[in-house]
Automatic annotation (TrEMBL):
Keywords: Thiamine pyrophosphate. PANTHER family: TRANSKETOLASE N-TERMINAL SECTION-RELATED. Residues 14-272 form the Transketolase N-terminal domain. Belongs to the transketolase family. The keyword Ribosomal protein does not apply. Pfam families: Transketolase_N. It comes from the Bacteria. CDD domains: TPP_TK (cd02012). The lineage of its organism: Bacteria, Bacillati, Actinomycetota, Actinomycetes, Kitasatosporales. The keyword NAD does not apply. This is Transketolase.
Amino acid sequence: MTATQATALDTLEEVAARIRSHVVDMCAGPEGGHLGGAFSSVEVLTALYFSVLDVDPRRPDDPERDRFLLSKGHAAVALYATLAERGFFPVGELSGYGRPGSRLMGHPVRAVPGVELPTGSLGHGLALACGFALAHRSAGRDARSFVLLGDGELQEGSVWEAAIAAASLRLDRLVAVVDRNGLQLTGATDRIAPMEPLADRWRSFGWAVREVDGHDAAALADHLAAAPWEPGRPSVLIARTVKGHGLPFLAGRAASHYVTLSPRNHARARAALRTTETAG
């Protein structure tokens, strides 16, 4: 089943709403989760898995598949919810997140169907995606390699080493997405390490660059489906997002980085999501 077929009965917004609901439930478990950065990346993951990526849940190891790496691996709860909704494993398994015996750990692991590599040690995902892109090219495949980076993660020097390599190797089947929510664990990214003008920085490293509202799933899908945007250049899409998007009591706050929702806040979150869904 292609991504287009997967959304035949549901809009991208409806899928994203279900993914958010799963994330809230997981973050209400005993281990909690990185809710803020998960919520800022939901539409990116929805667009990829339900409109762009050439993947088949029935054949998760198909050598011809597109590859996706969640470099910001702490947002694993969003990836797990997306993979479950896409059919890689039963949705019911999400309820065991973070519990003894569950394969759904705090960061993605290869034991989970659809997870390409363990991630979460920040700064490594782009280099790994370069490796996938090189492997595809060497094998004569047209598959693309996608990677989602956090904006705080861009403070890692290894990201820019990989960016140089990707441009030098002309990896135009490589696509990076930056979740530009402006916050990291200790506060605003631009207070800790200013990055703007971010688009110009990527261009100076030889990348084709676009920017988009990171909570507009349809626009994200259009941009990502069109890559590569320039022959011989890797592509990076800067997605302008809000950490904790959709939850008024957490949105835009660094405190949303990692939370264990109390029963009261779990109920507040579920109510907020229902209100948003109804308004939409």
